[in-house]
Amino acid sequence: MDDNNKSAPLRSRPTLRELAYFGVVSLVLLVSLAIAPAKNYFSDWRHYQKSYLKIAAERQSGTLVRSFHGGIHQTWIANLGVVDRCESCHVNMNGALVGATAQPFRKHPPIPHEINQFGCVTCHRGQGPATSVEEAHYTTEAWEQPLLPAKYLESGCGQCHLGPLEGAPKLSEGRSLLSSMGCVHCHNVTQPDGNQLTPGDNPPPLTHIAEKTSREWMYAWIKNPQAYAASATMPNFLLNDQDAADISAFLMAQSTPSAATKVEIKPAAAAAPTGADAATEATTLYGASFCSSCHAVQNEARNLVGGNFGPELTRVGNKVNPDWLRRWLNNPVAYHPDTRMPHYRMDDKQVALLSSFLLAKKDNDLLANVHLAPSTADSVARGKKLVTETGCAACHQINGVNPPQNFAPDLTRVGSRALAQVVFAPGMKHNLPDYIAAKIHDPRSFGPGLKMPKFTLTDSQTGALATALLAQTDRAATYPKELIISGARPSNYHPGGEAGKLMDDLRCLSCHAINGNGGDMAPDLTWEGSAVQGAWLEDFLKNPNTLRPALIRRMPKFNLSPEEIKTLADYISVAYQGSGFDSQTLDTHSLNADSAARGKQLFYSKYGCQSCHIADYKNDKGYVGPALTSVGTRLTPVWTYKWLKDPNALRAGTLMPNFGLKDDEARDLTAFLMTLKAKQGGSK
Amino acid sequence: MKRLGLLIFATVLLLAGCRHFSPQAPKPAAYGTQIVEVSGGKQLAQVGSPLPQPLVLQVNGADGNPVTGALVMLHGEGVQFTPAQALTDSSGQVTVTAQVGYNPGDYQVTAETPKAGGGTASLNLREIALGYEQTVGKMVNDKYCIRCHDPESTPERVSNLDNLSPAPHQFTDGATLNRISDADLTNMIAHGGPALGKSPQMPAYGATLKPPEIKAMLSYIRTIADPPVPEPRSEIWKIDILFEFLLSRSPLAAFLAQRRCCHWAR
């Protein structure tokens, strides 16, 4: 003992202080080592899984409990960039536990995709790899994308589906508004397939505006377009009186005479219609020309009656100069080469009637308080500067002002915009959907100096627009190409030759689509030559009667000359032929009286066609489909046969169901329908 | 620990629920005896979205005249109201926007107004939220079915219902349609009226609509039924549960679960 003490002065026992240090450090180490398992043990998902098992044990048998695998549940989809652990808490997505209605145990409602192929964040956003409620759902410092509110959920669909989508009405509405409200005149919106959204409105050129309207009307319109027409697409730029006066001065000054001014107005066209029946005659002409198919007028109950394809006409008398209107009715193309309005071939008396009828549509109070100082060189110069700054030329053609490039922010990736780059208005919730909706609803609430004008939109339209914009994400831009489903792009088809010129003059493509180009207001004419009989087509062009008893939008009568009708009918019959409309498909010799008798039986008894169609005005009442009383003179037998076999193949989206007819049933029905001929001695 | 977990869970739910009820009620200036609906009941909205039209409610006094300044309080599970409490205006009405919750299906809205002598007068409204499937069903309905099955006519879309005999059923007609099974309705849509001995005026849509569209249509019909579809088939359920319960206590259960032969044993 002593030796040891002397030779090796080993440390004696640790002092109390050292023991205390050691104890504390060990404790700290122990505690710090315990943090990780404790954190894991107290994690959100563990609690939810436990309560799930408890509910499962109470409600159902042990089988559900026994087959449950605890732990983190992860979906990993490499090519979509999805690492989702949502199902660690949302353990009842497949609905195995019946009757669970509170989150996180709700069953996922049915959707057209498998969840494990697309993951959760693809549509819902949020932070997939997170394992706590807070981090997964809400904004954190490291993660800016919180869960998307359910009302914008359709934006998820829009990342791959770039065209209209039936199951996503809000998204489709938003996309069409981006185009029809003219948003994409100023903002670029490029879809993941590289195609830009194109404007669907048709803003008039202002190059000859002095011919069309007065400076006073223009001033009032620029100040508040919706005061003139509640349905106006043009937004309110919230200009002050002086700015609006100067802009109107400039627009009048830059105007040059159009080609239409060379047309002389005959005295008969300018004369005020006389006679007791003039008013009735004018109303009849407005109705017979089907102006209301495109133009709306506010009725006494302040409801708009008519289409929204052309401008509202409620106060058109305030707007237009009488001579301009007469020339416009005579031939609109001379004033506006790209107008959607057809060239009606009206005679002088019709022009006089219709122009006086329209000029009477007027609100005397509208311009009563507009008194403008005469325009000066200064006001014109200032007006030009304002027009350039406001970006009027982004939509309208204006002499001396070029369309601005990159005038407004590019919205191609707006759905992923970092919140750090967003300037929120005071009092706003700091998230992207609310920001986008607020910006669309009232852009100037973010600052009076901003350029974006105020559009007239309902809340649901604002929501739809926000949904469409939220679909423009970074995520979508990196998706594999085979996932992207592009929308239909219009072709650049235009009919050629003499008939083509005539069809251009009549603006057929404003309403009808042919070979993938044109409007959707009227039937597609791509296979019209195969569908209808030549004689009927000539008759119809001469006097377009309606095929559908309950339709309010109808083909107008253009007062075509017999030569024009012949040219058009011949061209349509020859050029617009489909394939397979020949005797191989249907041998017309087989359409005999026996066959027709069987067909009649099928028509009335087996298939109840009379519930939607009228074959005989005496007994049938069906008001859904076109009347078939003279279908035997209208349609070709082979078209009728193929139509009955599969209507959707000939006209996509038709209401007529596919009855799955057998060949002989379709033949018999065709035979019966072909016996329904127009009474002779009518229009012929 | 289990209890603690549940307690936390319940507290979180409770707190989350409390968030919307914080604003203090305005002080009523008058009291009515009755609350009536002016408009806004039985609307359809997509899940998580505001109803297309606001709820307009009116408070009437004992004499049947509207009461100004009466307090109206709204609540409904999963529904958000703006504002949730309001005083009636000069015409005795309040206008409230309501946003339905994230579950497809029915939402019950209760509007209450305090009475002068204590107690409340209340009114129940039903609103309907459409999920993805019901939305697709509504699109199918609006395109193909509505012309004959809805009596309402607009200039754009004249109803054909009155032209048909026997008249088609409206899809809101729960009293009739709730008694027809899913399988029968699906058959009728796919194969037409004659498939169930009904009128051939109902065409077969089996070659026009895809099976998921028919399923969606069925789901839409069930969602908008008035009276609503009763709670799902409780008797079958009980038997199912009982059966499973008994089995789960037997050694057979493990065997069946392994073999995965029966859905209820999985």
Report on this structure:
The complex is a heterodimer of chains A (684) and B (266). Chain A has 684 residues and is mainly alpha-helical. Chain A has 5 domains: 44-133, no CATH class; 159-190 and 410-483, Orthogonal Bundle (Cytochrome Bc1 Complex, Chain D, domain 2); 209-359, Cytochrome Bc1 Complex, Chain D, domain 2 (Orthogonal Bundle); 497-575, Cytochrome c-like domain (Cytochrome Bc1 Complex, Chain D, domain 2); 588-673, Cytochrome Bc1 Complex, Chain D, domain 2 (Orthogonal Bundle), CATH 1.10.760.10. Helices cover 40% and strands 2% of the residues of chain A. Chain A has 32 helices and 6 strands. Chain A has a two-stranded antiparallel ribbon with strand order 1-2. Chain A starts with a helix and ends in a 10-residue tail after the last helix. The model of chain A has no long low-confidence stretch (mean pLDDT 89). Chain B is an alpha+beta fold. Chain B folds into 3 domains: 34-130, Immunoglobulin-like, CATH 2.60.40.10; 132-224, Cytochrome c-like domain (Cytochrome Bc1 Complex, Chain D, domain 2), CATH 1.10.760.10; 235-265. Chain B has helices at residues 2-18, 132-149, 174-177, 182-191, 211-224, 234-248, 252-259, and strands at residues 34-39, 44-46, 55-60, 71-75, 80-82, 85-87, 93-99, 105-114, 120-130. In chain B, strands 2-9-8-4-6 form a 5-stranded mixed beta sheet. In chain B, a hairpin with a 5-residue loop joins strand 8 (105-114) and strand 9 (120-130). The radius of gyration of chain B is 24 Å and the shape is globular. At the A-B interface, helix 3, helix 4 and helix 21 of A face helix 1, helix 2, helix 6 and helix 7 of B.
